[in-house]
Structure prediction request, 168 residues.
Amino acid sequence: MALRTPVLSAITLATASCAVAGWAADPHAGHTMPAGHAMPATPPASPTPTGQGLKATLIGANEVPGPGDADGSGAATVTIDPVKNQLCYTIKVALLDGVTMAHIHKAPMGSMGNVVVPLAAPTTGSSEGCVQIRPEIAAGILAAPSDFYVNVHSQANLAGAVRGQLGK
Ligand SMILES: [Cu+2]
Prediction:
């Protein structure tokens, strides 16, 4: 009995020393902390809205006065940043005969109107880009997208092959 107590005490002390030394010396101590401790004190800010997404479905029958391309089709997406006055777009078309130009024109369904934004022609079947537009054009499209249309022109349909009004 008298012999065992000192031995046990020595083991306990040694173990305690090792544990403390291990904490202090472990270079990876920070990596073993619970994941929650790595979170920033404040959550990240939500992304700033950069615009409003609009779409247009392009078909020949929408052309005015027409006729457009009978079997041609297409789709366009338009996003407008009203702070930067920037318009970004994608256009895809199919079965057009020699694409020449693409624009956004201002007129409601059933009438034709002037070009307000020139776009890259989807000569290979698709195009995309971002362009600066005047503030009043950005505001006008955002306020009444259906008063504007995407028009793709071709060699076979110079005045317009496929057309679609902008909408949500
Ligand atoms: Cu045009």
In short: The beta strands are 52-59, 73-81, 86-94, 99-106, 115-119, 126-132, 148-154, 162-165. The chain has two helices and eight strands. The radius of gyration is 33 Å. The longest strand covers residues 73-81.
